[in-house]
Structures are given as structure tokens and as C-alpha cells.
Amino acid sequence: MKAVVYNEFGGPEVLHVAEVDKPVPGPGQVLLAVRRAGVNPLDYKFRSGEFQIHSPRPLPATPGLEAAGVIEAVGPDMHGFAVGDEVLGWPLTGSYAQYALASLLIAKPATLDWDRAAALPVVGETALRVLALLGLRSGETLLIHGATGATGAIATQLAVAQGVTVIGTGSATNSDYIASLGATPTTYGEGLVERVRALAPNGIDAVLDAVGHGTLPDSIELRGGTERIVTIADPPAAAALGVTFSAGNVQDSDLPELAKLAEQVANGQITIALSRTFALADAAAAHELVESGHPGGKILIDPN
After folding, report:
1. pLDDT (tens digit, 9 = 90+) per residue, 110-134?
2. How open is the CA angle 215-221-223, to the nearest 5 degrees?
3. How many domains does the chain have?
4. φ, ψ for residue 20, nearest 5 deg
5. Which residues are registered as beta bridge partners of 163?
6. Which terminal residue of the chain, N or C, has fewer Cβ atoms less than 10 Å from its own Cβ?
7. Measured in whole angstroms, how far is the alpha carbon of residue 241 from the centre of its chain?
8. How many CB atoms lie within 10 A of CB 159?
9. Could you tell me if 272 and 153 are in contact, meaning their C-beta atoms sit under 8 angstroms apart?
10. Which domain holds residue 183?
């Protein structure tokens, strides 16, 4: 089968397409014929070697933390799924490939297209996890740094649906998009504290940082402390400032909530902004776009 592989750590140029052996599902696993793979910032952090200290990975490696596809084979003791089922979830092997092994999966709603299905697992789980950590209640005010990003946009919509007032940061050109999500837009950068205080004179109850780039000191000032601030983007600053950093660790118990979210996306209650879909051979260009910090929505890989 064809897969994107890197044999050394480095820039996007280390990615190339190679012929590799088709994996065989073991106990509790399925073989997934990948229809789409999602591209995430963690993919290039693993590829660059930046995350070797946190989560060492052997070489050669295939990137890709999420996928949607059709089950082609089922291993022993894997219950609840059958050959031909359309699913989405987190592969055990890299998803920038024609086939991948997987065990943490949910059924794909029939009306959910492959692009949105593959775009959902990582950002959906992240948004659900962080909102649960923040313990938001109806009537509270949440500040989201990076409301235009894939995770920030889903978190915004979910929080608004809970009756939470959301203030979302982004560039001035994205103000209309943030407002369309149900949030009050404001721009990031110098003067943020004053702008947010003007929009929320009674204060901010919680903060989700989905961008990093030095937003935590302002967040602490707005909160008057470090409580109920969660970052998914700035672990070094979180450790230095005493703020909660949250990273993904998906469990079976998380799957029912993701399945509910998938239905909401399928029926249009929650939207996911999509940017571009790249072929396997163009994986380096996909990484370059994600690394730019301005992908304009979720980036996907079509391995077929």
C-alpha cells in the first residue's frame, strides 16, 4: 500500500510517499481503508522531532492521528464493528496511508461526508475535554483565544449552545466568522485586556487558550489568577505560570460524547470549517500550510 513516510526528523521536505506493507489487525483492532486523514499541528511537531522528548516515536514513521474510512477486516475480540462499516476515530498506525489499524472508533453518521468525518476526532475530543475541565455553567462568560481555529470554533459553538457567553479572539478579518459562531469577536494583540474588559464588565469566568503565542499572562490578569484557565497550545508557559495544560488521551468512555457531536455536525447544528484536501504526494505542502498558523480551516489528506 502507499503511505507517507519520514525516515528522519526535519522539515516538511522529509515527507515522501513509499510502498509499505499493509497492516494486519490484531486482537481488538480493525483494518481501516482510509478515505480521509486529518492533518493536525501535532503531526508536524512529531515530524520535526520536537515532541521526541514528550512522546518518542521510532523511525521510519507515518504521520496522522485521525481518520475516517471503511472497515476492511476485523481482528479477534473486536466487537461492535463489522466489515463494510463506515467509521471515524483515532488510528493506531499513521493515517496518511491507504490503510491503517484502529481500535477507538465511532460509527460515521450516514449524512456526514468523509471530509467532515475525518476533521472531527481530534478537534471534537479536544473541545469536549476542555469545556468539561472548565466546568462551564449557563450564564457564565468564556474567553476563547483562537476562536477561528478548528478546535476553538467547535468549542465556541458548544459553549454557546450551553448558554455561555463567549468572547472569541481572532484577526479583524475574521470578526464576521466569529460572530456567525455565536460569539462576540475581538482582536488579539496589544490592548486585549482592555478590549475584553469593555466587552465583559462583570469579568471573565473561564479561558480556553487554543493558540499560545503569549496569551496566558493576559488571561491570568483577566481572571485574577490561574483558576479555570486551560491551554492546549502552550505547555511551557503553562508549566511556568501554573496554568492547566490539557493534552489528548482518548478513552472508550469519551466515545459516546463524540458520537453525539458527530450527529450534531451531520445535521448542521455544529459546523466545521474546512480548508483544503491534499493528495498523499502533497503531504509536505499540507504541513507547510498548517505550520503557517493560518490554514483557514481543517486540512485533510486523501490517500486514494
Report:
1. 999 999 999 999 999 999 999 999 9
2. 100
3. 2
4. -130, 165
5. none
6. C
7. 24
8. 28
9. yes
10. 136-227
